[in-house]
Structure formats: structure tokens, C-alpha cells
Amino acid sequence: MKREIAWREAQTEALLEAKTKEAFFAAVVKAGKELGFEYCAYGLRMPMPISNPRMLLLNNYSPEWQKRYVSQNYLSIDPTVAHGIHSVLPLVWSKALFDSTPEFWEDARSNGLRHGWAQSSYDAKGNVGMLTLARSRDELTQTELRDNSPRLTWLAQAVHEAGVRLATSQREAAPSIVLTMREAEVLRWTAEGKTSGEVGQIMDISERTVNFHVTNALVKLGVVNKTAGVVKAVLLRLI
Helix, strand, or coil here: 117? Predict the structure, then answer.
């Protein structure tokens, strides 16, 4: 137990001390190597701006594989990415996982990516990240997975929190948006397709009062209509 605590403290300290994406990723690579992986990748997608979400993509794959991944648009068919979008459960690479994308699988293997593990992380602000650890030799055994699962899952979350903190610190700080209970409630009913009159009946308030709360919420959210307000509020987990 003491050894485990010491390991986590060391990783936390390294991630907290990282002030640049290079230092941050160096800490991630080091942690991955300590767990027996030579390659790692971390991707972060932030919810704003809606039209062009901010992203952070880092990996130590070979330059050849990085170019190949982009040129072949493998992101659109990568089954590990598809899994990460819908689940936070850890994923171990297997032939069955890549059955629907055999060319992608063979291409990855020819570039040294033969065995791997991945896990996504989500947070209350709508940020989505995925940590992938891979190696060219030695299949992941059940014993290894059993022994290292707590560290792997903890690392995925720790890296995500540090990545979000780094990405946020490198952009202009945006004012925190706080909706009142009434503002959040009228937006929730609006998201269900209710008109202002219907929302007023449900909440037992006048339509004018509903529109007052909607207007205040839109101003706080920095949008000009209810549709944009609902979308932004949902993405920011405000409703």
C-alpha cells in the first residue's frame, strides 16, 4: 500500500509541476514506461467553442505512423476512439476489436503498435480525454492487467485532470457561468421542446417571467437565441 501511495504521489507531483505541454507529456510517457509501455497518446477535446472545439493531441508514435494516421483518416474508423466516445470502461486491444478495420490493424502493427490499453475520462465541464498506452512486444496478460488495473485507471484520470488544467491555463480565463435554479429549469423545459407558455404552465409562473429567466440565461451564456443557449448549457453541464 505504501509503495502504491508513493507511486501515485510521484506521478501527481510530476503532472502538477508541468507548465508546458512538452513537460506534461514527458511525465505521461515516463509513467507509461514504468507500467511497461513504450508508446502513449493522450487526446483532449474541450466543449467550447462549439463550432471549433479546442483540442490537445499528444503522442510519441513514430513520425511515419503519425503521418499515416492522418493521411488515411484513421481517426474516423479507429475502434478505440469509437469505444472511448461512448464508454469510460478500460479497453484492451484485441484482434476481435479490429475485425471491422483489418487494414488499420495491420498498418498499426507494422508500425510497432501491437498490444495496447486505453481508457476515456469525462468531467463535469464536458471535457473528454483518452489515454492510450501501447507496446510492440509482450501481450498483456490477465495477471498484468489484474495487478496494474488500479494504477492504469488512476493514471487515466490524473492525466486528464492535468491535461485540462494545462489547456485551460494556456488560454484566456473565461468568466465562470452560473445559472440560477429558475434559469436552469426554464432551459431544461425548453430543451424538451416546450414553448414559453407551456413552461409557464408547468412551473406555475407567467410567460413573461419565463422569458425574463430565459433572457437572463442567454446573456450569461453569451448567445443570442434559445437553441444556442440550450446547446451551450448542455455542453457545459449547466442543465
Answer: strand
Instruction: Report in angstroms the alpha-carbon separations of 17 from 22, 159, 166.
Output: 12, 13, 10
Q: pLDDT digits over 161-180, tens only?
A: 999 998 887 555 556 788 99
User: Regarding beta strands 128-135 and 55-59, do their DSSP bridges make them parallel or antiparallel, or are they unpaired?
Assistant: unpaired
Are 229 and 211 in contact, with CB atoms under 8 Å apart? no
pTM exceeds 0.90 for this model:
no
Count of CA atoms in the C-beta half-sphere (13 A) of 32: 24
* pLDDT, tens digit (0-9, with 9 covering 90-100), for 4-20: 889 999 999 999 999 99
Q: Torsions phi, psi of 85, nearest 5?
A: -70, -30
Cα Rg, the chain, nearest whole Å: 22
Secondary structure class of 60 (helix, strand, coil): coil
Euclidean distance between CA atoms 124 and 141, whole angstroms: 34
Categorize the per-residue pLDDT at 185 as very low, low, confident or very high, splitting at 50, 70 and 90.
very high
Residue 42 and residue 25 in contact, taking contact as beta carbons nearer than 8 Å: yes
